[in-house]
Each structure stands twice: as structure tokens, then as C-alpha cells.
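Schema walk-through. Below, the input block comes first and the output block second. Nothing else is stored per chain. Lengths vary across the set, and this one has 168 residues.
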Amino acid sequence: MGYHEIAPQKAREELFTLFDRDWAILSAGTKASFNSMTVSWGGAGTLWGKPAVTVYVRPQRYTLEFLRREPFFTLGFFTPQQHGLLAPFGAKSGRDCDKYALAGLKPVFLDQAVFPEGARLVLLCRKLCEQPMDPGGFCDPSIDRTFYAAKDYHHLFVGEVQKVLVKD
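--- output ---
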């Protein structure tokens, strides 16, 4: 299964459904050590004059260690029909098992990053910013009540999209 590269500006996606409907596998690490997880919160656009994405990761997720340590991460987008295939990436911890083996997928190594085979769209991102979410910035108090009962606030990551790969 091959991929071809397109310019970030050529990606034609439904930005408001790309994360929550299609889902993505967020991955970080190297051939020696990596981890991946499902994400359904995120965004894409232009920031600091660059094509950029934002992703959000809770502190208890094993992938956070890799994101904080490594300069690159990927987002591999799948289709809604593939949600079942991605289940181990959201329900299991890479500390305890090989999520790729459970899903029947292989990791693909690209430059200084990794992504799961079979993704229909892959964004290779260079990390620009990492910041813990500050609940003091919530303008709507229901956000804290609804999404953070355990006070496990996400870490926000911004990445510059350096490569866009589309499945052949």
C-alpha cells in the first residue's frame, strides 16, 4: 500500500468533521520506541504563518511522554467505517500491550516519525508548541464541569504540517 505526497495547501478535507467523525491516530516516537492513540479533538488551519494542526492529550495517556520528548508527530486519518479497527488505540495503553498487533496494523516509519498503515491521509508535523491547558482560561464554566470532573486537563500541542501523504 503506497502513499504520495501533496502540498499541505492542496489537502481538501472537511475540517469540522475530520477529527470527530473520521478520527485520527496520533503517533510520536522513533523506530526504537513509539506510541499511538486515537484522537477525535483537534483542528487545522494557519498559525504563525504556517499550515498547522492542534491536538489535545490528557496527562494519563502514555503517548504524552513521546509527544513531549520528540520533535515530530503524525496524524493518520481513517474513515468512520474503520473505527472498530482503531479500538485498541483508544481503549488500551501502549505501556501494557502492542496496540498495532491488536489492531492488525503495521507501523510505517517516515523521516523522524511513525504512523499506522492504512490511514487514508497522514500529516507529518513538526512540534511548535506544547502547553498544559489552564482551566482559568475557560470562559464557559460548563466546560470544566462537563469534561474535567477528574481535573485531568489536556495538554495542547501545535504542529507545523510539513508533509501531507494521501493513500494511493
